[in-house]
Amino acid sequence: MRIAKITATTVTTAALALGLAACGSGETPPTSSPGAAASATGPKYAGKTLSVWRLGDSNPAAAKYMEELNAEFKTKTGAEVKLEWIPWPQVADKFAAAATGTGPDVTEIGNDQVPMWQSQDALTPITDVAREGDRSQIPENLYGYETVDGEIYAVPWGAGARAVLYRKDWFEDLKIEVPKTWDELVAAGQKVQKEKGEGVDGFAFNGGSDANHLLAAFAWSEGGEFAVKEGDKWVGKLSEPGFTKGFETYTGLVKTGLSSKANLTLNTVDIRKRFANNKVAMYLTAGWDLPGIEEDSKGKLKGDKLGFFPLPAKTGGVAPSFFGGNDIALWGGTKEADLGKEYIKLATSKTWADRYAKEGGLLPVYPDTLAALNEDPAQGPFAQAFAKAKAFPADPNWSEADATKMVLQNAARSVIEGKQDAPAALAAANKELEEILNQ
């Protein structure tokens, strides 16, 4: 496997603020160059078909968005779009198979997945279009995962921050105030469990494929880190005080009974289904779960019964969220690179990118649109979480540690099941994490 050197970009509130300031001067937004516009007109690509992958499960809003986006693309280029939805649990296997065989022309991709798939030669650089036109307004710091050895391999499409989704109707019935501290959250969860009966999680433990989003929030709020780069080597920090305190809070969700021990391996998709079936009061996720909840509950759980609030840090204030998001990229083996770039340019134009974020439950990557959400009742909690967002180690091998070998998930399970104490489990996990990141 070819390992590339990744451009380090620190995700900070200051950097985001710079992006906001740069776009707040009242200047006319840049437009695509005449040459770029000309390449996307007329029948130049008539008769061609572009294959596009979207990740996750389709829903009415997403399906409508893609139908309208693809219709405009056909009008501009003359080309048809063959769209395929890839459920999240199947994404890793689907990408792995495509990397050695036939893949799409254009794909949606998680931003933290870009370094790994770039190292597998599964992505084609799109530096020539990534910062032109409307995309020049996207803050530079949002291209941290996407930039490898000076080349850009994906364009941010929508930003991801997580907040706590809760049963607003339950809270109102039980006269529970929206928690602003960790102690208040625990008390709220315990009260729901007492009133709603056995089998209900007050706050759901995530121990599945995306578990580190929850663990990270607890660890980062205590000043912990997974690993840091020292010179050219990754050094694990799992045994240091900040991380161990966050790990204790994470495993404590089960050890103290706030979440059931029977659900140790569930990921967000699994938790969403339990939430839709009245088995969860609160869990960490994002707005993209709402359509699935409505569908899973057969229409019984809609927006008026649900709400979000920022995850409180145990130390006070708002816990940092993972700096996540979805990008759009050109596949490495595509034979339609020029046509694929035209699709990426259209999809990430301000109009379509803002719609993608709004209709998909994500945060917009265009600063003026993001700034307008701070006071929004629905999106405000995510905007607040995003202001403190942090990223996982930007290394191609992080995905192996995170989702394939599930290093931290296994450590947590070992502690919860009483097979190891926390110091021993974290020491072993730290050794394994260093070995994986430094391959």
UniProtKB/TrEMBL annotation:
UniProt region (Disordered), positions on chain: 24-43
SUPFAM superfamilies documented for this protein: Periplasmic binding protein-like II
Keyword terms, alphabetized: Signal, Transport
Any one Gene Ontology BP term: maltose transport
Leader sequence segment: 1-17
A GO cellular component annotation in the UniProt record: ATP-binding cassette (ABC) transporter complex, substrate-binding subunit-containing
GO molecular function, one term: maltose binding
PANTHER family linked to this entry: MALTOSE-BINDING PERIPLASMIC PROTEIN, MALTOSE_MALTODEXTRIN-BINDING PERIPLASMIC PROTEIN
UniProt family annotation: Belongs to the bacterial solute-binding protein 1 family.
Name used for this protein in its record: N,N'-diacetylchitobiose transport system substrate-binding protein
